[in-house]
Amino acid sequence: xxxxxxPPVYDPAGVEEKRYQFWLQGxxxxxxxxxxxxxxxxxxxxxxxxxxxxxxxxxxxxxQDILIRWRRMQGYDALWLPGSDHxxxxxxxxxxxxxxxxxxxxRELGREKFLEKVWKWKDKYHARIVKQxxxxxxxxxxxxxxxxxxxGCSKAVRKVxxxxxxxxxxxxxxxxxxxxxxxHTALSDIEVEHESEAASITHIRYPLAGFPGHVVVAxxxxxxxxxxxxxxxHPGDRRYRDLVGKKVILPxxxxxxxxxxxxxxxxxxxxxxxxxxPGHDPNDLAIGQRHGLEVIKIIGEDARMTEDAGPYxxxxxxxxxxxxxxxxxxxxxxxxxxxxxxxxxxxxRCHTIVEPLISRQWFVRMKPLAEPALEAVNENRTVFIPxxxxxxxxxxxxxxxDWCI
Length: 405
Prior knowledge:
single chain; about 400 residues; Rossmann fold; Isoleucyl-tRNA Synthetase, domain 2; 2 domains; 4-stranded mixed sheet
């Protein structure tokens, strides 16, 4: 019997690499396309080529690997389809940041040269991601690997777009969207990250039109008052019952705007009276639609004030905020400033504060598409573990909004 000298320290890298190459050479992960077998498929959530994999990817891919190996052992024709995602503007942002570190302004490069840089980035990080997946030992069928900008994927996207449009599920309209001034793009709701931040509530006096007195409104965004088209109070609030239907004078621009009664208003917040800016807040837009209010866009896609902002045109939105507060103080129209903490929406890609804007965009009607997914859970064909997540999922799907694409 021959003697074998064991190394004093186990070398997982060497062992794992040899074992994985053995699996690949034996084509043990390839789906057989066997009509006699029941198919079972997992499409890998494609990692973004923005960088390297992290612990979340390791956990997620381990769970998928367990499932696909289990089904393979049960005799299914099991396919785990690997791939990676171009990630669109997210990749654009990281490449721009990388170029800036080298002293290169991406805007001065021009489109073609910038795209060359992006493709080089993609090649580098795609190779790194694949190597990391290899090291994890994932049992993917690598002969079918895809990138989301491959011609086949691009054709599929165009086909689905046309199919959904013909079914009346894709439409174009003017709606309140999440706009990133840095990325110059609309964001879906899931691309907006909400973070709790310290802020200030500005209590502003709006003079009554035609007789003495004023109404105090509270806002965390005083710059948007330039687009106000009403002041709203709760219909059950006795403090303002005699003022509903009358008008106030919008400070700084001296426009007369009505006082309306609406159930949305919380009489316990601030003074119980709120400014209504239909062009820059989704809740205000809903109030405006109920009361037939004008929509005024006073902040543009570049986050600067538009001509409808009057003397504040051209100012950055946050510069405008400070100027508005200063001007109101000079006029004696600031009741008080109050510290406040609220959830602020930021772009998931670049962390810029998102601006709600009315914009013409393409949308997908989600209710008809979400109904089968909801039925699958309600009928226990799809089960959540632990069960408490079932209600969270149901609540999300039942209240799903149309998807801005």
